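Comment on the following before class.
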Amino acid sequence: MPAIMIIGSIGFMMGTGGSALVSKTIGEGDRDKANRYFSMLIYLLIIIGLVLTAIGLIFIRPAARMLGAEGDMLKDCITYGGTLLLFLVPFMLQNSFQSFLIVAEKPTFGLVVSIISGVMNMVLDYLLVYVFRLGVLGAALATGISQTIGVILPIVFFARKNTSSLLRLGKAKFEWKPIWKTFTNGSSEMVTNLSMSLVNMLYNMQLMKYAGSNGVVAYGIIMYVNFIFVGVYLGYSIGTAPIVGYHYGAENSDELKNLLKRSFKLIGITAAVMTILAEVLSKLLASIFVSYDAELLDMTTRAIRIFCLSNIISGFNIFSSSFFTALNNGPVSAAISFLRTILFQISMIFILPLIFGLDGIWAAVVVADVLSLIVSIIFLILNRKKYNYA
């Protein structure tokens, strides 16, 4: 699954980077060029997806062996991964369309598509795995079919003639300058998705050393719980990015100032509320998963309380990275993401346990976010005159 996510992150990259470019172009008043860029990026993503599907199918067996799969597990890996690879193009397009639907001023439609796709996945999981006993093949088919449905609806919407959307699929030719700009704009999202697999692997490795299998279980629970909170920041950042890009293209510096000021205020209030909730509800959240084991419950509760302190800060870093993506400044956005998710966090995973033991592993993300906040503030100060947002 991490391998599929790494490949699929190209969809996130082109969605966030491309939507920043397209919204900026709309803000500049050139709707025709914006539609040309949008169409070109969607067609390019399909081509890239088909190429990566072919490469993935060729190398899936040696990749699974390299990661330690053998026997029945190897068969399951090839079945599951190979089936998901057949749906790689819909997976990448689904990630991309979520950003472009916001640019098209259809965020509600994007939400409805996500809900339909998610519910369909759950229903098909039950039918194909439990009723028809298809095992991992059924699980993969459920995911792939739901992703395909989540892509067909936006394609039909963007392809048909309509006046309610700012974007529409049409004729396009490949232009290397906007393609390169899209890749650099969205590089931070690419870095974030790539780093998640690496960081998770290192967390598990350190947890096996300091806490054994219980530590790995606790970390898995934290990932489920924490993403509920982080998802709020991600959703807000993705939702506001096209608005920032539009006003940047239209040179509305007053609106950029207003967006930045109000966003930080809103994120600050949300961060305080969510952190308090995480601390108060930590034992309840942990008991949902591990109420059967008192020792594991205590470990997971303490881990959530320490780990979720990062919610006070992480929203500012996530938004800052997205803000620079929307301003079409990919290098700064990528720098914030790279330092936060790779350099700082990986360093802390190995340094803090030497001082604080197991608590140091849980606190690694907190310290990494503090360091990243300093970097974000520095970049915001250095670029304030360039973009006139402060």
Residues 2-181 form one domain.
